[in-house]
Design goal:
- With 434 residues, the protein is mainly alpha-helical.
- The chain is built from 16 helices and no strands.
- The chain has helices spanning 2-9, 16-42, 52-80, 83-107, 110-138, 144-169, 175-194, 213-225, 228-259, 263-287, 294-315, 329-334, 339-366, 372-390, 393-399, 406-427.
- Helix 2 runs parallel beside helix 4 (83-107) and helix 2 (16-42) packs antiparallel against helix 7 (175-194).
- It starts with a helix and ends in a 7-residue tail after the last helix.
- This is MFS transporter.
- Pfam families: MFS_1.
- Keywords: Cell membrane, Membrane, Transmembrane, Transmembrane helix, Transport.
């Protein structure tokens, strides 16, 4: 049973240190990023006197841009060197970056903090393909879906914890000290834990690394496009990241302009989505036996048709709330009329978790070992690109003068197409069964 596989993996050196260290890295990324965003939004932190409306997208771009730029080089590194060695080195770099972040917080320097955030994105760009290409080396085939589910679930929990603590820490009088101590402490602990992981040897040790970012980005994407059986799950996973970015971007305004809730309701709904995605990922890992996992993608896709459509259609006729009289989280959650919307949002998130995990395992399993790092790095490039596109969802809706519910309709339509395609692939003779 996959429940037994999950329990076994969580205590073994070939997997547990990797899972914990990557979760701690995700926690630090989001604690730092959301602390920066909150300081810019509520406490006037800026660079070159820019308005807060510009600081927030700058912070978001500073983290995703280096992932897009450097994933092609990181993929080569993951194919040439031992993947566990790469992850140890990147975790050590995280310690140095967190020390620089601490200096930025004590100096209240927006410019230094944005620069650190950029290099954190670069560090993540090198860690991710090493992690993803290490999993098929460290795990057996039947363990791959469960392993990805555990990684995805712990990642979502870490993201939520980092974002929530950022809100709590930045309002403290000793915010700089608390943030700095937490970031450095977590980075050091993550590095020590990563040092326990077993080796994950590379498959192309003689590869000559090219640092031409533009040429290598095209080349890495070419590897993926010449392997359509790998490209399809990579595109599906990229859709998930676009979905997540769209929802997280949309949620604060949807909360205020449609649901009539204040920022505490927005935080509660963001937590609901993040935890739901983690639950969906873990459910996939528990119930699959390593075969026919594509059925979970189909179930998740159709869940992303049903539940977002319910949210859109249910709220479409709601009266516009009074901006001066928004409900707090306790009032909003206590109203039974809001419970169907909460349930639909939670089930949308669970569906998203079910949708993405089999696709991640599929891409890892199908990629040829000698180019696995580069092909999975192509997935990182697509994820960064689509996540950036997802952040412009509100802009497109405003430009077309559409209601906010249109975003949920868009999610439903594209998810339905993805689900139909996955179902067609399952029913084809000679189909892949993972």
């Amino acid at each position: 049973m996959s429940l037994g596989v999950a329990a076994r993996l969580m205590v073994q050196r070939r997997f547990a240190p990797l899972m914990v260290a990557q979760a701690m890295g995700a926690f630090n990324d989001n604690l730092f990023r959301f602390a920066l965003v909150n300081l810019a939004t509520f406490q006037g932190l800026t660079i070159f006197g820019l308005e807060r409306e510009l600081m927030v997208p700058i912070a978001a771009t500073a983290l995703t841009l280096p992932i897009f730029l450097f994933s092609s080089v990181a993929g080569q590194v993951a194919d040439k060197y031992d993947r566990a060695w790469i992850m140890r080195r990147t975790k050590f770099v995280e310690i140095l970056l967190m020390i620089a972040a601490a200096i930025g917080f004590f100096l209240n320097s927006g410019l230094l903090l944005v620069i650190v955030l950029f290099f954190m994105g670069m560090q993540s760009a090198f860690f991710a393909p090493a992690r993803n290409s290490a999993l098929p080396t460290l795990l057996e085939g039947k363990e791959l879906v469960t392993g990805n589910a555990l990684v995805s679930g712990s990642l979502n929990v870490a993201i939520l914890a980092g974002a929530a603590l950022a809100v709590v820490f930045v309002v403290r009088e000793d915010a700089a000290f608390v943030l700095s101590a937490t970031l450095i402490g977590v980075a050091v602990t993550g590095w020590l834990i990563m040092c326990l992981n077993k080796p994950a040897p590379a498959d192309s040790p003689d590869l000559k690394i090219s640092w031409n970012i533009v040429a290598q980005t095209g080349k890495v994407l070419g590897f993926a496009f010449r392997a359509p059986d790998v490209l399809r799950p990579l595109l599906g996973a990229a859709w998930f990241w676009m979905l997540a970015a769209s929802v997280l971007t949309l949620m604060p305004l949807f909360t205020a302009a449609v649901l009539g809730g204040d920022e505490t309701v927005g935080l509660a709904l963001t937590a609901l989505f993040t935890v739901g995605a983690a639950v969906g990922a873990v459910m996939c890992g528990v119930f699959t036996r390593g075969k026919d996992a594509l059925i979970f993608t189909v179930i998740g896709a159709f869940g992303l048709v049903i539940f977002p459509s319910f949210v859109a259609l249910t709220t479409l006729g709601w009266p516009e709330p009074d901006p001066s009289d928004l409900a707090s989280a306790d009032v909003f959650l206590a109203d039974p009329d809001n419970w169907p919307i909460l349930a639909a949002l939670a089930l949308s998130a669970v569906s998203a978790g079910l949708f993405v995990v089999p696709l991640q395992a599929m891409a890892q399993r199908r990629a040829k070992p000698e180019v696995r790092g580069r092909i999975l790095a192509a997935g990182g490039i697509m994820n960064a690109a689509t996540a950036s596109l997802g952040q412009f969802t509100l802009f497109a809706i405003a430009l077309l003068t559409l209601p906010l519910q249109a975003a949920f309709g868009y999610i439903a339509v594209v998810s339905g197409l993805a689900g139909l395609f996955a179902l067609w692939r399952m029913m084809r003779p000679g189909r892949y069964t993972e």
